[in-house]
From TrEMBL, chain A:
PROSITE patterns: HTH_LUXR_2 (PS50043), RESPONSE_REGULATORY (PS50110). The keyword Lipid metabolism does not apply. It comes from Streptomyces polyasparticus. Pfam families: GerE, Response_reg. This is Response regulator transcription factor.
């Protein structure tokens, strides 16, 4: 799988290259600035891009802007955005075009290589990987209002959080140590209780859930 | 003329008397002070000027208080804050310099010349008219000895018989009423004269405002730095130390007990994630990343999304303000949102940001309980101080039961 990587700090860039290569990814370009990223994305058309939000020259959200621009020119280009902090505002902008292949994770998630690489693969396959922090903030807001979230059982809420992160039924089953059949039962309950359109495509589910709560 | 007016007239006439005593003291001090300044050449002035300045200011402050009582408008002291003077002769010189370079000193001196002349006339005129008038009114009762003494006049009337005495009484009555009538006006005029010379000039008021807000800003930023230092020291720094120690232990155990090393490494990873979380929260409190990335409007939108309440944000900003101004407005809005959620039990909040008349403006309206009082809430005082450092202001409209509207204004230029 071909990856373009954008990270301005040498140590982190180097570490990410090594991590990805140890999981048999091919890093076709590792850049350290925004304009370089856009060029690499358009030249290489990688299977997935791993991008730091803050990049030179402006050290603002250069990486995010380059990724969004590349996706405007190459719709559905899979991008996993990494950041020192996560903001719902940015999550919404990334998800706005509704075409999937989007990830938005805290940099800390790299500490768990298996989980991180799983997220990269999910994004490359057109799925979604939302950081648990983004989802948790969203749920905190949803829970404050006396919405239908209150009607869910605690287990159903756990399943809903994992769905919002973009996990598949199989992954949810594994994470909660229950059978996939049980997950399917929970999800159909959730969709009924929240009156959401039933969908099996993981990123469609994410959009539906996020749109519902936000 | 009704009774109330007569009473205020009499009181006004009497009130002018203390001015006379004050004016004499001022005239004496004026001479002393000028002498002391003249003695600067031979060095003695350095000792005399600061001491006399204390006396001058005490006396002139009495004039200030009197004028304030008459006019109902307080006259704040206009003096520059005293320097941190060293002991000994050098300190004396610093104090002298402070006294002589303060424009308020020279305005005080001008007052000490003007007040004994114009001030005394204005203050004593009603008194003189009333007393003189009374003398005329009493003339018919006491004219006999006066007429016998011969060649005596009341105003322009020669007192010679009963007829002229009544004529004088009529004139006295008019004078008396004139005295009672001009009393309040004369006092007001005197107070106005005092205001012109004794109130702080615009420049002095500005200096005072800047001194206050600067010391507020310095204090709060010092407190901020202390908090950051403590957070780093007890949080991330301590965790990094623990991390290094754990790694050292793991290195030691590697050959002997690989299973224990695995557990230590897992702990270490958790500790590093916790350190990151702490640093992230700290950074958010210093300068929120979205504010740096996108500016005020998006930072406030991000804030609204994280807030548990229903928040709508309207922003109409044609450019970006300087970073410190943006930051001040951001934290003011953040504080207002926290207040709405915490104290007002509001359900929804609307935030407006716009630029008008050379100022960045923000309005936060909640539908909570209302009754917020800036003099009691430390949160509102904090917003006020934050804004004041940039000459900004906060207006609070919070009647009980109607929600709270905070309006904030920061003069600045947009780029």
């Amino acid at each position: 799988m071909r990856v373009v990587l954008a990270e301005d700090l040498f140590l982190l860039r180097d570490g990410l290259v090594r991590l990805l290569e140890s999981y048999d990814f091919e890093v076709v370009a590792a850049v350290d600035n925004g304009p370089g990223l856009l060029k690499a994305l358009l030249d290489h058309r990688p299977d997935v891009a791993v991008v730091d939000v803050r990049l030179p020259p402006t050290f603002t959200d250069e990486g995010l802007q380059a990724a969004l621009e590349a996706r405007r020119q190459v719709p559905g280009l899979p991008v996993l955005v990494l950041s020192q902090y996560v903001e719902q505002l940015y999550a919404r902008e990334l998800l706005a075009d509704g075409s999937g292949g989007i990830g938005y994770l805290l940099k800390d998630r790299v500490f768990d290589p298996d989980g991180f690489v799983d997220a990269v693969r999910r994004v490359a396959a057109g799925g979604t990987a939302m950081d648990p922090d983004v989802v948790a903030k969203l749920f905190a807001k949803g829970a404050h209002r006396d919405g239908p979230l209150a009607r869910l059982t605690p287990r159903e809420r756990e399943v809903l959080s994992l769905m919002a992160e973009g996990r598949s039924n199989a992954a949810i089953a594994q994470s909660l140590v229950i059978t996939e059949r049980a997950v399917i039962k929970h999800t159909s309950n959730i969709f009924t209780k929240l009156d959401l359109p039933v969908s099996d495509a993981d990123n469609r589910r994410v959009l539906a859930v996020l749109a519902y709560i936000g | 003329m009704n009774t109330v007016n007569i009473r205020t007239g009499i009181r006004s006439a009497g009130r002018g008397l203390p001015v006379l005593g004050l004016a004499i003291a001022e005239l004496v001090l004026f001479c002393l002070f000028v002498t002391a300044v003249a003695l600067l050449g031979v060095g003695l002035g350095v000792l005399l000027v600061p001491a006399l300045a204390v006396a001058v200011r005490a006396v002139v402050n009495t004039s200030r208080r009197t004028a304030a009582r008459w006019s109902g408008v307080a006259l704040p002291e206009p003096y520059l804050p005293p320097p941190a003077a060293e002991p000994g002769l050098k300190g004396q010189w610093q104090r002298t310099h402070w006294v002589l370079t303060d424009p308020a000193t020279w305005r005080d001196l001008a007052w000490m010349l003007v007040n004994p002349v114009a001030g005394v006339v204005l203050a004593l005129l009603p008194f003189a008219l009333v007393v003189g008038g009374l003398g005329g009114v009493l003339m018919p009762a006491v004219y006999q000895p006066i007429a016998d003494a011969g060649e005596n006049y009341y105003l322009w009337v020669e007192i010679s018989d009963m007829t002229s005495a009544w004529y004088a009484a009529a004139l006295g009555l008019i004078t008396l009423f004139a005295g009672l009538a001009v009393g309040p006006a004369a006092l007001r005029a005197h107070a106005a004269l005092a205001r012109t010379l004794l109130a702080p000039t615009a420049a002095a008021r500005r200096v005072r405002h800047l001194t206050d807000t600067r010391s507020d800003a310095v204090n709060s930023s010092a407190a901020e730095l202390r908090r950051i230092e403590r957070d780093l020291h007890d949080g991330a720094q301590a965790r990094l130390v623990a991390l290094g120690m754990n790694l050292g232990v793991a290195e030691q155990l590697l050959a002997k007990d690989p299973e224990a090393v695995r557990a230590i490494l897992a702990d270490t990873r958790k500790a590093s994630a916790a350190a990151l979380t702490e640093l992230r929260d700290l950074v958010r409190g210093i300068h929120p990343p979205v504010l740096a990335d996108r500016g005020l409007a998006d930072a406030v939108r991000a804030l609204a999304m994280d807030c548990p309440l229903d928040v709508t944000v309207q922003a109409d900003l044609p450019g970006r303000a300087e970073a410190p101004v943006e930051s001040a407005m951001y934290f003011a809005v953040a504080e207002a949102l926290t207040n709405a959620a915490k104290h007002a039990s509001a359900d929804s909040v609307s935030i407006d940001l716009w630029y008008e008349g050379g100022a960045l403006r923000g309005q936060v309206i909640d539908d909570g309980e209302g009754g917020a009082d800036p003099s009691r809430g430390t949160g509102l005082r904090g917003i006020e101080r934050r804004l004041a450092a940039f000459d900004g202001i906060l207006a609070v409209n919070s009647k009980s039961g109607t929600g709270t509207t905070l309006t904030m204004e920061l003069p600045c230029a947009l780029s």
